[in-house]
Amino acid sequence: MTATDSPPAAAAPSPAVRPPGSAGWFTPLLRRLHFFAGLLVGPFILVAAVSGALYAVAPTLQKVMYAHELTAASDAPGVSLAAQIEAARAHLGDGSTPVAVRPAPEAGATTRVMFADETLPESTTRAIFVDPATTEIRGDLPAYGTSGALPLRHWISDLHRSLHLGDAGRWYSELAASWLGIVALAGLGLWIGRFVRSRRGRRDLVRPNRRHTGYRRLSGWHSAVGIWVVLGAVFLSATGITWSTFAGAHVSDLRAAVGEGTPTLTTSLDGAAAGGEHAGHAGHSAAAATGPADSATFDAVLAIAQRINVDSGDVEIKPPAAAGKAWVVQEIHRSFPTEVDAVAIDGSRMQVTDRVDFADYPLLAKLSRWGIDLHSGTMFGLANQLVLFALALGIAALVVLGYAMWWRRRPTRGLAAAPARGALGRAPWWGIAAVLVVAIAIGLFLPLVGYTLAAFVVIDVLVGWRARRAAPSGTRGTAAR
Which residue spans traverse the membrane (predicted)? Predict the structure, then answer.
């Protein structure tokens, strides 16, 4: 090499080539799932969240709205149930027999005597509210379902459960509950990814940075609110699913299959029941009378139940629904500690034929009971309701913020583009298999998720195919990505 010769230029380092399947694919897939699910199912979740906020405080609203009916004129000791029931029957004046009685749970509360009424909707009774001390009639209202919800609470509950649209509305509710957990978990995965990659902005992921503006400000609020409500959103989704039409049936079947179903009280007085642990009337005929459903019998069966396992003030007493059936006395105390023990009594012999104790419930049955009571705001009273109210508003805010982010990122004309497709195509074979298995399993267990997810995939494939057809030949590869 001469002095004038220059050394050869150093070759520019070639970019590292990732082996097939090693390119990031899971986070982009989560981002696309979160985007499309939030965009398309967001309205359902928003309606469920807003109505859920109202549903959360419904028990307290009911106490305020119906204070006169629920409150006695004094807290003096009450007379017998028989006298209270007779006062309710005299109020009706038609000789009706109660289908259930809920004695005053505490001093200063009223007794609820409930009658069948063919003019009322199914699962609805006519409740007469009686002052236990004076037998004064304090009110006459319809009561709905096993919860005994009064008109205002029932209206709010039906709004949240079905938008007053019947079965179609219940499908909306199940769709919202099913997708809520999926959207929340996908968002949590994206949040964790950002937290791991971020060096300086981790604090902004927990509380929004007020110095940010525009899209970054909206994104900061979305991330911060999301991480605070994500566990609550998953909880509401899981407990809401247990009440749903399709997925709820699958939950019940699964619990029954593993022996974790809720125990049921045997009320039949046939020979099979007579041989039970608590029976004392072997060979008793199913067609035999089970005791007159007169007023005095309510006092008698309650006294027996209180000697067995009923020690809560919140109690419901039901006479036999037909010949060969037992009286039922059941605790209905849904606040903590949960008291839902029940006992069946042969009214003709005044003997216990069966009992169910909450302490003996399987674990999943207990968790289901607690989850439902937490979801409905009855477990811890007003504190429970306020937390649910704030949680529901937080979920509603996330939906609104998500739409605001989508709108903010739109171009001058048209709508904001979705996250790029093709993430699953970059996944290794095991990743593709895992996604398919999880998607099929979720679709089978949550049918409405399965149907809508399949629809999303079909629409996405058609939109991608159309984009490739419309793109110039030199850019079709880019459009496909």
Answer: 35-58, 176-197, 218-243, 386-406, 427-445
Q: What share of the chain is helix, strand, coil (3-state, %, to 5)?
A: 55, 10, 35
Task: Report pLDDT for 416.
Answer: 59
Q: Please count the other Cβ atoms lying within 10 Å of the Cβ belonging to residue 315.
A: 23
Q: Are residues 186 and 241 in the same domain?
A: yes
Are residues 117 and 51 part of one domain? Answer: no
Closest CA to 97 of 88, 105, 108: 88
Structural domain contains residue 286: yes
Residue in this structure with the two tokens 């429970």, named with its chain if needed? 384
**Structure tokens belonging to residue 394:** 């937080």
Closest CA relative to residue 468, chosen from 477, 455, 459: 477
- Do 341 and 356 form a contact (C-beta atoms < 8 A)? yes
Helical ranges in 93-166 per DSSP H: 151-162
As a whole number of angstroms, the distance between CA 95 and CA 9 comes to 109
Lowest mean pLDDT among 18-22, 52-56, 145-149, 382-386: 18-22
Per-residue pLDDT at 10: 43
The Cα-based distances of 389 to 27, 150, 163, 375, 393 in angstroms read 32, 20, 18, 11, 6
Q: What span, in angstroms and rounded, lies between the C-alpha atoms of 81 and 129?
A: 12
Helices (H), 57-166: 58-65, 67-70, 81-92, 151-162
Other beta carbons within 10 Å of 112: 28
What is the pLDDT confidence band of residue 14, given thresholds at 50, 70 and 90? very low
In this structure, is residue 264 part of a structural domain? no
Q: Which three-class secondary structure state does DSSP give residue 75?
A: coil
Q: Which strand (E) or helix (H) includes residue 112?
A: strand 111-116
- Domain range holding 83? 67-149
Global confidence as pTM: 0.84
- The number of distinct structural domains making up the chain is 3
Contacts of residue 470, Cβ cutoff 8 Å, sequence gap at least 6 = 479
Instruction: For residue 372, tell me if it sits in a domain.
Output: no
Contact assessment for residue 225 and residue 394, using Cβ atoms and an 8 Å cutoff: yes
